[in-house]
Amino acid sequence: MKGRGRPRSFDRATALEKALVAFWEHGYEATSVSDLTRIMGIGAPSLYAAFGDKRTLFEEVVRVYSDTHGAFGDRAIAEEPTARAAVERMLREAAAEYTDPAHPYGCLVAHAATNCTSPEVEQLLRERRNANLAALASRIRADIAAGLLPAGADADALARHAGAMIQGMSQQARDGASRGELEALAEIAMAIWPRD
Fold first, then answer.
1. Would you say residue 55 has pLDDT above 70?
2. Which UniProt keywords are given for this protein, alphabetically ordered (predicted)?
3. DSSP H helix total and E strand total for the chain
4. Domain that holds residue 39
5. Same structural domain for residues 99 and 131?
6. Residue 6 has what pLDDT?
7. What confidence category does residue 137 fall into, taking pLDDT thresholds of 50, 70 and 90?
8. Do 99 and 22 share a structural domain?
9. Phi/psi class of residue 13: alpha, beta or left (left: φ > 0; alpha: ψ in -120 to 50)?
10. 103/187 Cα distance (integer angstroms)
11. What is the pLDDT of residues 74-125, one digit of tens each?
């Protein structure tokens, strides 16, 4: 059966990347549907047909961001031999990613929630941040069990410290901190890590 309407006359991936940059730059609340259609170069009917409503588009943007620009944390946890090395790498890569002039500064997941009045969007972003903390805490617990960290180390507190550093580095980058300044913060942050 033939579909209704005209075929899409735009590149979906390109339009999605443009929406990602808009949400990253301005946040969820401050990015209107008219902003999105203008930035994406499509009409509102095409936006709704291809992506659903604004919130559904944003959910897809967050998935794309997490698989691309925001994937450095997951990669570090998966690839580094210890939780300490993973956190050190995450902080170093956050300093580079958050200050990269090729895209908006900071972290989309941290910034998009600013002044957000949508409970669903707030929950989506909170769940994403909490899942990241849980993955890191799990990795830290594994290192404690393996004797790579002291038995008394507080996995949840160490994970929250790393999360707070990453969120703070995001805001610092948006406020103009350089990569070097953020790398210096990362170095200080690692000084609190316990050694076995």
1. yes
2. DNA-binding, Transcription, Transcription regulation
3. 10, 0
4. 12-58
5. yes
6. 52
7. very high
8. no
9. alpha
10. 25
11. 999 999 999 999 999 999 999 999 999 999 999 999 888 777 788 998 999 9
| Within-domain flag for 127 | yes
Residue 32 in domain: yes
Q: What is the pTM of this model?
A: 0.88
Question: In angstroms, how far apart are the furthest CA atoms of the chain?
Answer: 66
- Residue carrying structure tokens 């908006």: 104
Burial 5-35 (b: 16+ CB within 10 A, else e): eeeeeeeeeebbbbbbbbbbbbbbeebeeee
Q: Among 86, 127, 81, 108, which Cα is nearest to 170's?
A: 108
Condensed to tens digits (0 to 9), the pLDDT of residues 24-48 reads 999 999 999 999 999 999 989 989 9
Q: Name 48's Cβ contacts closer than 8 Å, sequence gap at least 6.
A: none
Does 99 reside within a domain? yes
